[in-house]
Write a structure and sequence with these properties.
mainly beta
Amino acid sequence: QVHLVESGGGSVQARGSLRLSCAASGYADSYYCMGWFRQASGTAREGVASIGRDLSTRYADSVKGRFTISKDNVNGTLYLQMNNLKPEDTAMYYCAAGYSWYASLVEWAYNDWGQGTQVTVSS
């Protein structure tokens, strides 16, 4: 089992930037895709960005052009660069790892989840 630990969350003003990191320990190389999900208070968890084994990426429409997902294949760390943040981006952000070859924004494609890091954007 892979252990995922997110970091980098915090409070920023609108139009600010944050960079989330997800450190993977254990047999992380066995996973094919990794992704970021978020869950705002009172809402369902949604897929934000994903990177597949083939390095394909997928983004939610709401973050396209503002968020960038990347992965350091040497140490297995996953990143999410978030620019031009908006108050509606406020949520708990989760890192996930799964066996889908391609990038995916659906929860069932993922097997392991981190504990989350909070992002709060004020107007």
